[in-house]
Amino acid sequence: MSDSSTFHEQPINTTSLPDISRAQSAALYETALHYFPGGVNSPVRAFKSVFGTPLFIKKGDGCTVWDADGNQFVDFCCSWGPLILGHNNPVVKQHVLQAIDSGMSFGAPTELENDLASLILSNNKKIEKLRFVSSGTEAVMSAIRLARGYTKRDKILKFDGCYHGHVDSLLVKAGSGLVTFGETSSAGVPKGFADETIVIPLNDKEAVKAAFDQFPGQIAAVIIEGIPANNGLLIQTKEYIQFLREVTKTNQSLLIFDEVITGFRLGFEGAAAYYDVNPDIITYGKIIGGGMPVGAYGASAEIMGHVSPEGSVYQAGTLSGNPVAMAAGIGQLSQLLQPGFYKKLNAKAASFVECIQEFANNRGYKFKVFTAGSMFWFAFTDQNIQAAAEIDASSMTYFKVMHRELLNRGVYLGPSGYEIGFISDAHTAADLDKAKKAIFDSLDIVFLKDYA
Ligand SMILES: *Cc1c(COP(=O)(O)O)cnc(C)c1O
């Protein structure tokens, strides 16, 4: 244990605060249980791995959200990533209101689609053409179909711990052994689909080579998250990512970067620029729609030429390129392109994370903050974690306590210790100071109070 008195005058505080009132949220949840399985429209919202029932959010502004009981929180979930400018951004809002004035959907092309595409393509050297869809899942599903259609191969190689939306063939987890056919991780996924998916551990070159040896000429694509950020933050080395680029090229297989989280987050050109790599297909979602349902997949003009109606890979959408959603994307991405935007955001995030890490180190707590750009992950470990199997599931009991203590102190993290947090442009120094103090107190409680 190091000397705790060395950290800025932060006294040890192990007093749990009383639980905030959550009566209105609890009542809404009771009602929602009649309507939706588990009371929610997406499973991780259900608070299954933390204390209590979901907070029903009434309003957001800047980095603050208010729940149905009127409690106020500094929000680090930010709708799971899309809100890089915070809630209720005035420019995004203005674009949306203006678009709505002219109608909600036409099922015919609009100039707004050109405008958003031009904003993206003229500032992103990694892709030449793209197609807009309505979610990250849809983007990945389409990218996989394109890779299969383009290579005329069926198998997909994915990594244990990477999430790519709820696409059938990717709802597959690792079996036992170095290179395995996946086992479905959801009921309702045919075994035949899982058989086309090979799952291997992250950060393991031998496993990749073994997979290509075992299935020569059969792997259509290797898919990886730009930085795996859905099962902790599993930061891969640049060398490993460049190895994936080489090995896919050698085997005439495509490299798909799923940048649904990292796209427009690590920088405007996402993880592809961060790792200085040129993937064959890139998927986007979350930030691209400014809070509206938008996804996209992009590639070289040559590869995109295989998509219908130019090519034979079919993909369509009634609401694809929806004008209101396009307007929100334009409102958001145009602000991200302002000079120094990412430098400022990333510096702010780095100093927040460093301060928390310094606190934990000074106290001697077994706690590590993994971070890249404005993303962070709190892990109760002293190891450098780069693969899913390295996460100690039992450490999640600490997160559960931390989550409750943070809610009681006005800080909202996504309700699972496997999820990462996001810092937005709207988080001010004062908000981050308030959050730090709450994080320090909750860490003291987690580490010094006996929960046995
Ligand atoms: C969120 C996410 C998806 C799925 O996007 P949805 O919009 O939820 O369908 C896919 N891939 C990654 C990397 C994601 O983070």
Automatic annotation (TrEMBL):
PROSITE patterns: AA_TRANSFER_CLASS_3 (PS00600)
SUPFAM superfamilies named in the record: PLP-dependent transferases (SSF53383)
Residues with the N6-(pyridoxal phosphate)lysine modification: K286
EC numbers for this chain: 5.4.3.8
Entry keyword Isomerase: yes
Pfam families given in the database record: Aminotran_3
Gene Ontology annotations of biological process type: protoporphyrinogen IX biosynthetic process
Listed GO CC annotations: cytoplasm
Known cofactor(s): pyridoxal 5'-phosphate
InterPro entries assigned to the protein according to its UniProt record, in alphabetical order: 4pyrrol_synth_GluAld_NH2Trfase (IPR004639), Aminotrans_3 (IPR005814), Aminotrans_3_PPA_site (IPR049704), PyrdxlP-dep_Trfase (IPR015424), PyrdxlP-dep_Trfase_major (IPR015421), PyrdxlP-dep_Trfase_small (IPR015422)
Name of the protein this chain belongs to: Glutamate-1-semialdehyde 2,1-aminomutase
